Amino acid sequence: MVRYLWGNLNNSTENSSARTHVKGWGASFETGTILVQNRHLALFSDVQLTYQQLHTNGYKMDVVNVASNVDRSFIGRLALRIAPALHTARTLSPYLTVNFSHEFLPTQKIDFGEKRWDSTWQKNWITLGVGATHQLNQNLYWYGSVDYAKNLTSNSSYSVKGNLGIEYRF
């Protein structure tokens, strides 16, 4: 799966706060199965490994620019998704998701003016989201979603992001 990402990233601490618009791309491998299904709803589980590159567009912490503008990372994700059990081909299929993910990010060296800050950015996130898929042909789908993510490692980090993508199902 290849996807385009956009959104806002907010971070605040006792002494400072930051907000930036991010955009980027990701490529992932995902597999899943149906856990429970009745006439109306189905509960799916997913496991995903993603490589993503995000451009932070001159990230600012209060009034100081951060030197790094691109984040590259691997992300592991476990998810539960609730969706309609049966839908007619070529119709919009909405869904709700709950995700647990871990970012495998390297230690970052960030310059704040003349000061250097080394930070380990490996984070755990819980995400709630809504989205929809639309079948284009037998194997090809487009999808879109909006997610709210809360960082479990920090009390102050959260993000709101959107995803658009094309998915090929085997």
Number of strands: 12
Strand content: over 45%
- Rg on CA atoms, Å: 18 Å
Task: Please identify the structural class as seen in this structure.
Answer: mainly beta
Helix amount:
under 10%
Oligomer: single chain
Shape: elongated
Low-pLDDT residue spans = none
Head-to-tail CA distance between termini: 12 Å
Total number of distinct structural domains: 1
User: Total helix count?
Assistant: 0
Protein name: Autotransporter protein YapE
InterPro entries: Autotransporte_beta, Autotransporte_beta_dom_sf, OM_autotransptr_brl_dom
Organism: Avibacterium paragallinarum (Haemophilus gallinarum)
Word description of this protein:
This protein has 170 residues and is mainly β. 0% of the residues lie in helices and 75% in strands. The protein has no helices and 12 strands. The protein has strands at 2-12, 17-37, 41-55, 60-61, 64-65, 70-84, 92-104, 107-112, 115-120, 123-135, 140-151, 158-168. An 8-stranded antiparallel barrel has the order 1-2-3-6-7-10-11-12. A two-stranded antiparallel ribbon has the order 4-5. A two-stranded antiparallel sheet has the order 8-9. β11 and β12 form a beta hairpin. It starts with a strand and ends with a strand. The model has no long low-confidence stretch (mean pLDDT 77).
